[in-house]
Amino acid sequence: MNVTVIGAGLAGSECAWQLAQRGIQVELHEMKPEKMTPAHTTEYFAELCCSNSLRGAGLENAVGLLKEELRRLDSLILQCADATRVEAGGALAVDRHGFARLVTEKVRSHPNITVIPGEVTEIPEGEVIIASGPLTSDALAETLQGLLGEHSDLHFFDAAAPLVSAESVDMEHAWMGSRYDKGTDDYVNCPMNQEEYDAFWKELTTAQEAEVHGFEDSMVFEGCMPVEVMARRGHDTLLYGPLKSRGLDDPRTGRWPYAVVQLRRDNAEGSVYNLVGFQTHLKFPEQRRVFSMIPALRNAEFLRYGVMHRNTFLDSPRLLDRYYRLKKEPRIAFAGQMTGVEGYVESAASGFLVGVETARRLKGQPPVDFPREMAIGALALYISNESVTQFQPMNINFGIIPPLDHFVKGKRNKNAEISQRALAILEEKKADILA
Ligand code: FAD
């Protein structure tokens, strides 16, 4: 029993692993490093191309539940994320390279996985899982367009934030700590007074943007909105968004500053930091000019500038079933961001489900039917819900999971109880899923 998986990103690596763990022989095709996407820079599998955070860890938020489900079901991505975790308050953030290196080592050394280097341009015969991501190479994207017609022609734009070296941050104008002192020294906080913010905002909203073909008439995904686009919505918008100072007591004044830019540790050593919420598509010299107006970043060394890319996804409710299989040709399934799930963990979760269900089908086992009450199931059922007419990429959220049948006071308590319900269902199904 053989399966071809195209793309060794978050979804493809997880999917290949789940298949292989169930005794299926996998041919995993990856075009890096021979051919790079515009946002990937290393040879590693499961490379995180922007933030190093897999977002909230607690069970009162939906992505925390999704991670816990994957963790309990022996997900490769969660196992490697937990092993390379760096401190980030209430979030699960990882050492970017350490994480990707570990995934790569594990996948490459699995006896049932054969890694085949090079770009795939045609869809192979047999069982195929396409997990080539939002930056699928042009040649394969064209082939898919031919196969799927009008339903593949959807896109929006994603941006990545810059990275700076820790030693270049001026700690005379910054301090380490977390919001409301949760966690330890997880973030470097870079304050600005009103005068500094006003000058920064003015330059940010008028700085020169890099040209991105088609961006003028595009959709921008809210979760990855460029900081300059957000700033143009109004003088105070950033003060309620990435620059909010609530809960950040400046040790020199004991007060919350007017604005705070947070830097999050990007590697285990703490030598690289990313600017939280600073996804951008300003021209590189403009990024240096404008972001250096933040006092603590006056002499910052930019290790990588922010970039913006086109992000393609399918009209999945018309095309895919609840196992992410192509309705008109079920030997072909899709996994990851291109199905319209949005985010690292969501991509891994779709790869997990496709891997498990494909292996079961090939082995003659009945499908698991992940229910809507579980985050993994809710995502798959949303993606394949034909009644969704204006399909947009979707992060996991409690809005797509059925509510409780009784009243619980307080949103956090309610969400935590929805998570407990999901985990109880998971425990009942676990032995079957792992079989
Ligand atoms: P990928 O991880 O991109 O993996 C696809 C793999 O397929 C790549 O390794 C690629 O080289 C390979 N490939 C492509 N075409 C071919 C081919 N023809 N033949 C062989 N191999 C091929 N999500 C977040 O949660 N947080 C973020 O901060 C974030 N930032 C993002 C920034 C950008 C610029 C983009 C584009 C997306 C971002 N996302 C973010 C969204 C999404 O979570 C990531 O794109 C995620 O990596 C998607 O996982 P994937 O497995 O679907 O694709």
Automatic annotation (TrEMBL):
Q: Which UniProt keywords apply?
A: Cytoplasm, FAD, Flavoprotein, Methyltransferase, NAD, NADP, Transferase, tRNA processing
Where does the sequence pass through the membrane? none
**Which leading EC class covers this enzyme?**
transferase
Q: Which GO terms describe its molecular function?
A: flavin adenine dinucleotide binding; tRNA (uracil(54)-C5)-methyltransferase activity, 5,10-methylenetetrahydrofolate-dependent
The Enzyme Commission number assigned here is 2.1.1.74
Residues that coordinate or bind FAD: G7, A8, G9, L10, A11, G12
GO cellular component terms, A-Z = cytosol
Q: Just give the chief location class.
A: cytoplasm
Q: Superkingdom of the source?
A: Bacteria
Q: Which family does it belong to?
A: Belongs to the MnmG family. TrmFO subfamily.
Q: What is this protein called?
A: Methylenetetrahydrofolate--tRNA-(uracil-5-)-methyltransferase TrmFO
The protein's organism comes out as Dysosmobacter segnis
